[in-house]
Amino acid sequence: MEKKSNHFSGQLGFVLAAAGSAVGVGNLWRFPYLAAKDGGGLFLIIYLILVLTFGFTLLTSDIAIGRRTQKSAIGAYTQMRPKWKFLGILTFLVPVLIMTYYAVIGGWITKYAVVYVTGQAQAAAADDYFTSFISSSTSPVIFALLFMGVTAFIVYNGVEKGIEKVSKWMMPILLVLVVVIAVYSLTLSYTDASGQVHTGWQGFLYYLKPDFKGLTVQRFLQILLDAMSQLFFSLSVSMGIMITYGSYVKPEVNLNKAINQIEIFDTGVAFLAGAMIIPAVYVFSGTEGMGAGPSLMFISLPKVFSAMGKAGTFVGILFFVTAIFATLSSCISVLESITANCMEIFHTGRKKTVLVLSAIYLAVSAVIALGYSIFYVEVKLPNGSVGQLLDIMDYISNSVMMPFIALLSTILIGWIVTPYYVIDEMERSGDKFRRKKLYRVMIRFVAPVMMFILFLQSTGILF
């Protein structure tokens, strides 16, 4: 086995970096929406079960493959089975596409953080503020380039001195901020025009209480697929990131404990994200304000912060700083995955590789940022939605490629190289792989079927 020159200093550094990759903007703007839409506690129960089974299986596979091969996606799959190199190439293309727009979203969040820090919170609550901002031909480009530049600088400094060093202080701060905002959301109360009092605790109970009203087999299946889709994207699996991070893990690190810690951190932040957003939106906007994606973060929440009065500005600052950390940690991992693959393919050094990639993605990010103005297009996607440039890239990478890659990888591991390829690596440090039987059943029988169904649903073929 080839010895990797880059590595994390130990288990803590790896866990925080991997958790940083997993805790992305989807935890903040997609998880709360799905929880509110899909029966509150019912969604949470299903999600937790999937974390312990489906998510555990894919996460374990990626990390173990990375450490065993000491390579990133293309090299790892090639080493496993040369005829399956195409799967490594497909996996490599996912972060290549995601990187085209992730810095743009990071730029949007940074813009709102600046707006709140500079005392313009009321302006951000206006109905047309977000639309006016993203349709501008200058502001979204500037903030996207700024975010891309910071990401590139961290990756440029390497695994231990860049990614790990930043993750060790950024992730604990992110966790503290999420807890603080969640606790504050529970203390909120608002009396509407009819005299009815809405409290944060009511919103929290709405979030936790399983709603079985109108539950049918089809609705249950839809909730299951929503939870699986959220978990799939949240853990950064099937995009090569965890394979790359796994290749940086030292042999003596206990992968069993590390994977458990990553699962706990990611799931904990997702739960707390719901606890800080759902009660706040419920108090001031009811269930009607619980939109998904950008509309939740950039339209609904600024209105909620505005309704809080003077405290809203401070809470807004905390929230968007939290969102910056979550987005930056994920953006770093996406660029690192691309960088690692390119270093292996072209046999180039880190600094030269990052500089070339930075130049490319600075230009591409500018184009995507202008996708709502100069380069505006409307394309009807196979799932029925209409998207612009950013939506097209997101749809291809997340809805089409990632489920397809996960399906193929479960077939490769479960039936061709056999599960023991991963199991042996999990027990390499001498520790017992306690979920070995579960892993074998999931990777061979359950996960392939689930991924096939998710692929059909994500592409609009099913439902």
TrEMBL record:
<feature type="transmembrane region" description="Helical">
    <location>
        <begin position="443"/>
        <end position="462"/>
    </location>
</feature>
<feature type="transmembrane region" description="Helical">
    <location>
        <begin position="395"/>
        <end position="422"/>
    </location>
</feature>
<dbReference type="InterPro" id="IPR000175">
    <property type="entry name" value="Na/ntran_symport"/>
</dbReference>
<feature type="transmembrane region" description="Helical">
    <location>
        <begin position="141"/>
        <end position="159"/>
    </location>
</feature>
<keyword id="KW-0813">Transport</keyword>
<feature type="transmembrane region" description="Helical">
    <location>
        <begin position="86"/>
        <end position="109"/>
    </location>
</feature>
<feature type="transmembrane region" description="Helical">
    <location>
        <begin position="41"/>
        <end position="65"/>
    </location>
</feature>
<feature type="transmembrane region" description="Helical">
    <location>
        <begin position="171"/>
        <end position="191"/>
    </location>
</feature>
<feature type="transmembrane region" description="Helical">
    <location>
        <begin position="353"/>
        <end position="375"/>
    </location>
</feature>
<feature type="transmembrane region" description="Helical">
    <location>
        <begin position="304"/>
        <end position="332"/>
    </location>
</feature>
<feature type="transmembrane region" description="Helical">
    <location>
        <begin position="220"/>
        <end position="243"/>
    </location>
</feature>
<keyword id="KW-0812">Transmembrane</keyword>
<protein>
    <submittedName>
        <fullName>Sodium-dependent transporter</fullName>
    </submittedName>
</protein>
<dbReference type="InterPro" id="IPR037272">
    <property type="entry name" value="SNS_sf"/>
</dbReference>
<feature type="transmembrane region" description="Helical">
    <location>
        <begin position="12"/>
        <end position="29"/>
    </location>
</feature>
<dbReference type="GO" id="GO:0016020">
    <property type="term" value="C:membrane"/>
</dbReference>
<dbReference type="InterPro" id="IPR047218">
    <property type="entry name" value="YocR/YhdH-like"/>
</dbReference>
<feature type="transmembrane region" description="Helical">
    <location>
        <begin position="264"/>
        <end position="284"/>
    </location>
</feature>
<keyword id="KW-0472">Membrane</keyword>
<dbReference type="Pfam" id="PF00209">
    <property type="entry name" value="SNF"/>
</dbReference>
<keyword id="KW-1133">Transmembrane helix</keyword>
